[in-house]
Write a structure and sequence with these properties.
The chain is 46% helix and 9% strand. It has 4 helices and 3 strands.
Length: 182
């Protein structure tokens, strides 16, 4: 004996990974390679924040001492480097939100916020070169700090390029910056 089961009422179920209710699905190939670069820079700066930002070495009188600090330490004036790292990562995060979740309303255009965050992060990294307390002759900035400084500068330039390519209005005197890239 067999029983006929009636089909369920309502709209048919969509298979996984298909277009959503709006008919849009995320296609990674639709994201510009410079946007991927911005996202990658933010991720790499975040990873490097856990490594040595500052170091201090002492060797004398038969004693060897060494101390390192990551971006997550706030003593000795290191807060500036931490804030620079946070702004750089936030610049990438804002762009990620706009790319992967376009329904989220941001307080300003995402590319404008991304450029401003990367630019402020870069400026703070430059200030951090001079602003930390004196570590003495055996101390200073370590490899993660310098890599993060360089990457935040590159991120600011790429974010500016993308803002200009997408005709995003920049605030105040930044609107008159010369166009870079294609």
């Amino acid at each position: 004996m067999s029983y006929d089961v009636p089909p369920p009422s309502g709209p048919p179920a969509q298979p996984p990974n298909s277009a959503g209710p709006s008919g849009n699905s995320f296609d990674p190939s639709s994201v510009d390679r410079r946007d991927w670069a911005i996202l990658g820079i933010g991720f790499i700066v975040f990873i490097f924040s856990f490594f040595n930002y500052y170091k201090w070495d002492y060797s004398g009188f038969g004693i060897k001492l060494s101390k390192t600090w990551s971006a997550w330490h706030f003593d000795h004036g290191l807060f500036i480097a931490w804030l620079a790292m946070v702004l750089t990562v936030a610049g990438a995060a804002v762009l990620a939100v706009s790319l992967f979740s376009p329904a989220v309303q941001l307080p300003a255009p995402a590319r404008q916020l991304s450029f401003l965050a990367f630019g402020a992060g870069f400026v703070l990294y430059v200030i951090a070169i001079f602003a930390h307390s004196d570590f003495g002759p055996g101390g200073g900035h370590d490899f993660s700090f310098w890599i993060s400084l360089i990457l935040s500068g590159v991120g600011a330039v790429v974010a500016l390029m993308r803002a200009q390519q997408t005709n995003t209005a920049l605030p105040g005197p930044l609107a008159s910056l010369p166009r870079i890239g294609k």
